[in-house]
Specification:
2 copies of one chain form a homodimer. With about 70 residues, chain A is mainly alpha-helical. Chain A has a single domain, classed as 434 Repressor (Amino-terminal Domain) (Orthogonal Bundle), CATH 1.10.260. Chain A contains 5 helices and no strands. In chain A, α2 crosses α3. The model of chain A has no long low-confidence stretch (mean pLDDT about 95). At the A-B interface, α1, α4 and α5 of A face α1, α4 and α5 of B.
Chain lengths: ~70, ~70
């Protein structure tokens, strides 16, 4: 599967924000958000295609605005 | 169904951007984007939950950055 560039950008930015906010493990962050660790892993690798509802939930969990999560997508 | 506030904000902003960009009808815009008119209508009323792939496609069709589409969500 070819992963679209916007998914790669989203995933890398999500990982950066997670680590910047002190969630060094995907497991701990996933528990904080209330979604499965494998889903977080899939998002960070660009393999999952999150819905708006999920993007908003992730943003709230990271204490950023939802638009910030998409800031690196051209 | 109670529609989440972030979906309402997204839908209203999408409608504003569509009209500002000169797409007065949902039908013409839907054809431009390549998705169904009823889906555009559902998005603008907050009844649909678009994926990241769809958000990026809408943004490209409106000639804005994807983050701009989420700019009004708190």
């Amino acid at each position: 599967m070819t992963i679209p560039a916007h998914r790669i950008a989203f995933g890398e930015h999500l990982r950066d924000l997670r680590q910047d906010r002190g969630w060094s493990s995907q497991e701990a962050f996933a528990h904080h958000v209330g979604i499965d660790r494998t889903y977080i892993s899939g998002l960070e690798r660009g393999r999952r295609n999150p819905t708006l509802d999920v993007i908003v939930k992730l943003a709230q969990s990271l204490d950023v605005k939802p638009a910030e999560l998409l800031a690196t997508i051209e």
